[in-house]
From TrEMBL:
This is Arp2/3 complex 34 kDa subunit. Functions as actin-binding component of the Arp2/3 complex which is involved in regulation of actin polymerization and together with an activating nucleation-promoting factor (NPF) mediates the formation of branched actin networks. It is found in: Cytoplasm, Cytoskeleton. The keyword Cytoplasm applies.
Amino acid sequence: MILLQSPSRYLLQILYNRVQSLEKGVELDSQWVEFDDIRYHIQGSVKNPNVLLLSVSLPIPPPETVLFGGLPLGALEAIKAAYGAVAQILDPPRDGFNLTLKLNLSKLPPDEEQKHALLTKIASVREVVMGAPLRAVLKQLVTRTVPSDLGKPVALVHRPNESFFLVPQADKVTVIFPMRFNDSIDTVLATSFLQEFVEARRTAGLNNAPPCLWSPSPPQELTEAFTEALSANAGFVSFVIFSRHVEGRKLDRTVWNLSTFHAYVNYHVKCSECFMHTRMRRQVESLIQALDRAKPDPEKAKKNSPNRSFKRMTLKDGNNSLGSRSWK
């Protein structure tokens, strides 16, 4: 299966082009949407080509989630730790956005490898911002820090008006996703996909992967959650994260895979639907060709038909007619 990449490819390409053409001083103003929930806007002027304004609009939070200054918990600290002096947080952000960063490209490191790593990190702003509270909870597994609200679900926004839940415990963190789809066909495909997803976890080669469960009804850990947050037409998926899943560099990968899990499932559902439509079109084309071959050709049938002539003859025995018959 295909895993979604953390950096925004479009944003990363814009940053690379800007760094390589600083002397040209090209005017820049571009907007786009990714994952159907994150909106970007990047601007650059001719007068000061080293400065870029990057604005990010986050999904509309459901009522059960809590934001601080329009951002998830710990997002500001995560931005400062990830970008350092290259990015400055503007307060207030641009109208219609939750975050605006002032990027100073002149402060990029001279080393090409370090510059590439930092540009990739800037292009991964979605992971840095949206994954900040998830990262903070998962770090507690490594530090063995028991949270004060042990066992109480924590709601995190990941799609417009939708959230997923963390249930932190002393030795593990349970991540629960209510899976919702607007299209009835997508719901059926997603339900089948998630059930196979759970079965695939039981194969021998995936013993070290986080345990995965699927249920059509809410798990017991969500008994205190809002009723509106538990309306899931494709069931509930639960991952149990242990300390071995977030050690070292595994933390970044785990945070990204969990924060984009719904987009990952939706991507493969659409691919499956497209594959089935392609197979159906090919089958229809094959049937049409078979029907075309079965149609008789009038000209060919006329040429192959035998040429027969008939002549009426009357047989008489003296003056008495014996009858008439058609002979070839």
